[in-house]
Amino acid sequence: MKRILFALMLVVGYLPSAYGEDVIIVNEDFESYTDSADLLDASDGDGWPSSTGVDNFTMLTTRSDIYPNIQGQAAEFQGAVGFGAGSVNVWSGSFQVNPSEAQYVELTADIGDDASDANKKNTVGLRSNSPANLIELGVWNGTPGPYYAFRLVLFAGGSEIPTPGDENSSWAVFPLPDSLNSPTEVGPGFHRYKALIRPDSITVSLDLYADGLINDTNSPNFNMPGVDAERTLAVTTLPAGFDNLRFGIPSASGSSIGGGGFNAYDNIILKLVDPPSGVAGDYNGNGVVDAADYTYWRDRLDQNVTLPNTDPNDMDDMVTQNEYNFWVSRFGATSGSASFGAGAVPEPATTLLAIVGIGALAFRRQSR
User: Fold this and answer.
1) What would the DSSP string read from start to end of 264-306?
2) Which end of the chain is more exposed for a tag (fewer CB within 10 A), N or C?
3) Taking a C-beta distance cutoff of 8 angstroms, is the pair 287, 124 a contact?
4) pLDDT of residue 298
């Protein structure tokens, strides 16, 4: 299905929903295209033409032998070494969106991988044509092979690098267990990437196999609902917002795929969403009190700011050990859990106990 809501389009962006409903900007499942030529046709305002005007071998595919969990049709970017930076397929519709406190911007995309060892550099990207506010989610070439990665650059303050030592300077690896950190280990199929963009932070997540489950067999939460990797970063979106949606070779990359490997794209959804109703202890606003909220707290420790969904009884306007203790007491709570000030405390899981030890160490180091 190809959809863009021209009736809601404004020169400066989209109106926030007055009734708490999501505003769908692009909802692409590639089912309405009759053939590959139709996919690349921009004349009706809803195709994915090549940005360079050169045939980059993008075509429709239904091959379940390459992508076991494919749903109907998908767009396959075959690419080749030599196309160079900018060889992407760009959504031909017009839009302009900015995250706000009233509504966040959410990008979701399923990226299929054939799990070959090819030199892969393929992503879904959202950015401003300025250029500014560049988000890329997908597969990036590394050593010894491709890995699941993301990149956030050209935001206020420049690039945001989550952890020293992350590969390729501005690229960061999704934090997966050793047995699931590369396509060859995970196997072929589609995986779901998401970016939830707030005015001053972005949460990126990866759901392997797009199954909505945690797939690490060593995790105490194995086969429980959730995502396989998630990171929240303090990133401020520049006023230019976002007006360009694409898939293919990442920006500033010299090549795409070599050695016969393929990537495909499906279920690309761009929308405005209301912030989750306040869940006490959910500092990053993703609707659950989890490990990502610890990272959000740690990155703001000793700053004169007030964390979202913090303890309403904490009035010191500074991030301290108090917010950490409150997060521990609320770990595991969701949108359906106790509200602010409630006394229900979930049983701590193994994951929480490990993070608690790390948090205590981080606080002692900060206090010296």
Assistant:
1) EEEEEEEEEEPPPPP-TT-TT-SSB--HHHHHHHHTTTT-S--
2) C
3) no
4) 87
For 88-145, write each residue's pLDDT tens digit: 899 999 999 999 989 999 999 999 988 876 667 789 999 999 889 999 999 887 666 6
C-alpha to C-alpha distance for 340 and 149, rounded to whole angstroms: 35
Cβ-based neighbour number of residue 305 at 10 Å: 12
Q: Read off the CATH number of the domain in which 156 is found.
A: 2.60.120.560
3-state secondary structure of 28: strand
Residue 280 inside a domain? The answer is no
- Name residues whose C-beta falls within 8 Å of residue 253's C-beta, 6 or more positions apart in sequence: 85, 121
In sequence order, which residues have a C-beta less than 8 Å from that of residue 110 and are 6 or more positions away?
A: 74, 190, 191, 192, 193, 210, 265, 266, 267, 268
Cα R_g (the chain), whole angstroms: 21
Q: In this structure, are 96 and 243 located in the same domain?
A: yes
206/82: higher pLDDT:
206
- State the DSSP H helix or E strand holding residue 330, giving kind and residue range, or none if neither: helix 321-330
- Joined together, the tokens standing for residue 159 give 């690039």
Query: What is the count of structural domains for the chain?
Result: 2
User: Cα 164 from chain centroid?
Assistant: 20
Asked whether the predicted pLDDT for residue 275 surpasses 60, the reply is: yes
Q: Is 299 in the same domain as 264?
A: no
Q: How many CA within 13 A on the CB side of residue 169?
A: 5
Task: Say if residues 170 and 123 touch (Cβ distance below 8 Å).
Answer: no
Spell out where the chain has E strands.
Answer: 23-28, 58-61, 74-77, 88-90, 104-113, 122-128, 132-140, 147-153, 171-173, 189-197, 202-207, 229-233, 244-248, 263-273
* Phi, psi values for residue 323, rounded to 5°: -65, -35
Residue closest to 74 by CA, chosen among 270, 246, 264: 264
